[in-house]
Amino acid sequence: MSESTNLDLIFARVKKASRTISSITEQRRSELLLTLADEITANSASLLEANSRDLSRMERENPLYDRLQLTPERLESIASDMRHVASLPSPLGEVIEEHILPNGLQLRRVRVPFGVIGVIYEARPNVTFDVFSLCFKSGNACVLKGGSDACHSNLAIISLIHKVLREHGINPDVTALLPATHEATAALLNAVGYVDVCIPRGGKKLINFVRDNARVPVIETGAGVVSTYFDAEGDVTMGTGIITNAKTRRVSVCNALDTLIIHSSRLIDLPALCSGLAEKNVELHADPRSFETLSGCYPAHLLLHADDDTYATEWMDYKMGIKTVDSIDEALDHIATFGSGHSESIITDNQHTADRFQSEVDAACVYVNAPTSFTDGAQFGLGAEIGISTQKLGPRGPMGLREITTYRYLINGTGQLRP
Fold first, then answer.
1. What pLDDT band is residue 84 in, cutting at 50, 70 and 90?
2. Rounded CA gap, 411 and 331, in Å?
3. I want to staple 325 with a disulfide (CB 3.0 to 4.6 A). Which of 44, 69, 82, 330 is the partner?
4. What is the torsional sign of CA 184, 210, 156, 169?
């Protein structure tokens, strides 16, 4: 049997199974997720062993190594997030609006699952757990296409998920893991009639490829070219903590800081603002004015001149750009030019400036006096996230249970006829 034929059979089985999920009671779905969360902890040794096989094939210096790595603490965090998802109310059946038409017809708009959600992702095995928990709780089936870097981890995870599904008497076809091949990616993007929506999670190259080649609908989860603007009226102590946290908490994630924009009147404070970055050996790519300010105040081997690509780069590494501006208008123009619509932040004590920043910055998440590292489904109280959408049509920002549902109209009559 050819791979394409085998993939079509997988899609068909998932599509058929998807019709059964919404009929499973919310209590049963929650109980399964709680069981799976316990199984993650109980099977941590085997999950970590599979993950170590993936890690052994990647250099530690690779920025994706951190994304790929599972640890006992990260597994417990995944289990905790899954328990949170289990505790959340299901959006299924929610009546969004209801009214009686003049002719007596009762019209209701009710929340329902998409059906089958395809997700393509790179070296992040935690996504396998997150996507399954959110899809299952919201009544969706899912087809997963992980990267080859995480193939052993993903196989161990999907095996555990299928085991728990069988133990609860639920068809394991409600979720499927495709082979880590280019052919599987192409098949998923062309699975018209089987897959209702495809969501890419990864870098800009992956997202662009999915958008440009998919024949099924796509929800873009954008690459994060993320900036923080330190305003003329920003607090240095607060700013130092925010900048350090946003840049160095986890450099390989999409909410990590890529560019610090600083008002020229505050260049004198730039060495202090970057002090936490120096301790973490962050390489700075600075424009001429900020470079001059930092010369002699920042490790010379970590201070470089910015070039034409600096401010459009999602670093995913211990690297960051610095841009000097003379006004809030210049800061807003810079973000409009180079931002990806993901997350942006301002550090200021001026409420008018803060309000203007949040009003004019076109991004899914816009912060005042807080780091962009908070752009995360769990941090937003969603339990987990299936991705962070940067598009404007449909869901935007971290996507939890409600964001992966659609709706249908239910119309009840008493024999009315249309004239």
1. very high
2. 51
3. 330
4. negative
DSSP state of 90: P
Mean pLDDT calculated for residue range 3-24: 90
Answer yes or no: are the C-beta atoms of 393 and 129 closer than 8 Å: no
C-alpha span between 317 and 319 (Å, rounded) = 5
pLDDT at 109: 96
- The Cα–Cα gap between 379 and 384 comes to 8
Q: Letter for the amino acid at 9?
A: L
Closest CA to 132 of 94, 169, 168, 160: 160
Q: State which H helix or E strand residue 142 sits in.
A: strand 141-145
DSSP annotation of 301: G
Q: What is the largest CA-CA distance in the chain?
A: 84
Residue 419 CB-density burial (10 A; 0-12 exposed, 13-18 middle, 19+ buried): exposed
* Cβ proximity of 107 and 95 under 8 Å: no
Are 72 and 41 in contact by the 8 Å Cβ rule? The answer is: no
pLDDT, position 2: 58
Tell me the pLDDT tens digit for each residue of 287-317: 999 999 999 999 999 999 999 999 999 998 9
Phi and psi angles of residue 146, each rounded to the nearest 5 degrees, phi first: -85, 170
CB 194 within 8 Å of CB 17: no
Cβ proximity of 277 and 243 under 8 Å: yes
What are the residues whose beta carbons fall under 8 Å from the beta carbon of 169, sequence distance 6 or more?
none
Strands 106-113 and 95-100, sheet pairing = antiparallel
Closest to 36 measured CA to CA, from 1, 70, 72, 85: 85
Q: Helix, strand, or coil here: 389? A: strand
- Pair of tokens at residue 28: 């049963």
**Residues 249 and 282: beta-carbon distance below 8 Å:** no
Strand 397-398 versus strand 405-412 pairing type: unpaired
CB 116 within 8 A of CB 18: yes
Closest of 150, 162, 160, 157 to residue 13, by C-alpha: 162
As a whole number, mean pLDDT of residues 230-251 equals 96
C-alpha 19/C-alpha 277 separation (Å) is 51
